[in-house]
């Protein structure tokens, strides 16, 4: 399904190929609910289902339901709309990289955003995760004594006195890390233009995020 340039992994994964893979080629390695495996494909499938139910494309759904109501003016899946604001990405050796084209995998990482916009999103989450999005903070799988999996969020237990929610991500030339503590309404957002792919030091960004969260809860 990802038979394309290694520097732009998902470029050729268009709708027909995506659907064909899901209906004919994919094989589960375990009984659903038995094991946990992080899956970009799973998030892409979830987004695809939402598109079908809503009869809207991804960009329209995001703009109408999230970005415009929260006044996230520099968030989009369309690179041309923010090309004058977009920071150049680099790999971990300092070489220029291309921006990934997510094609039908867009639900797993096509959004372009900024720290200021993500701050607005997290401010909304302080209330939403205790109201309409309560299910998103509830554990669905225990990985070990320090880590549980909620819906998209990870629940980290060993860094601060009380658990906090966190997630990270990376595409070509970029690495991000985010954490949110609902108890004291603090959050960390780190966006970098150094890629995570094959980067032996990629954990430094997450460790910085954790250290900052520890500082905020002292």
TrEMBL record:
Domain Beta-lactamase-related: residue ranges: 16-202
Cross-referenced Pfam families: Beta-lactamase
Keyword Hydrolase: yes
Highest taxon in the source lineage: Bacteria
EC number: 3.1.1.103
InterPro entries per the UniProt record, alphabetical: Beta-lactam-related, Beta-lactam/transpept-like, Beta-lactamase-like_AB/R
Membrane-spanning segments: none
Sorted UniProt keywords: Hydrolase
Signal peptide boundaries: none
Molecular function, one GO term: hydrolase activity
Family named by the database record: Belongs to the beta-lactamase family.
Protein name: Serine hydrolase domain-containing protein
């Amino acid at each position: 399904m990802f038979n394309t340039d290694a520097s732009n992994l998902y470029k050729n994964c268009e709708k027909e190929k995506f659907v064909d893979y899901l209906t004919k080629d994919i094989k589960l390695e375990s009984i659903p609910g038995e094991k946990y495996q992080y899956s970009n494909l799973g998030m892409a499938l979830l987004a695809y289902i939402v598109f079908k139910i809503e009869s809207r494309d991804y960009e329209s759904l995001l703009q109408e339901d999230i970005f415009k109501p929260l006044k996230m003016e520099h968030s989009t899946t369309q690179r041309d709309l923010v090309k004058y604001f977009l920071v150049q990405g680099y790999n971990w050796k300092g070489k220029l990289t291309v921006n990934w084209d997510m094609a039908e995998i867009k639900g797993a990482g096509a959004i372009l955003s900024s720290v200021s916009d993500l701050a607005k999103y997290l401010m909304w989450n302080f209330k939403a995760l205790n109201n309409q999005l309560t299910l998103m903070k509830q554990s669905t799988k225990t990985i070990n004594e320090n880590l549980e999996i909620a819906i998209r969020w990870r629940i980290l237990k060993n860094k601060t006195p009380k658990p906090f929610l966190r997630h990270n991500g990376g595409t070509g030339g970029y690495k991000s890390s985010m954490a949110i503590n609902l108890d004291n309404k603090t959050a960390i957002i780190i966006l970098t233009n150094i890629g995570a792919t094959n980067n032996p030091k990629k954990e430094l960004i997450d460790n910085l995020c954790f250290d900052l969260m520890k500082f905020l809860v002292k």
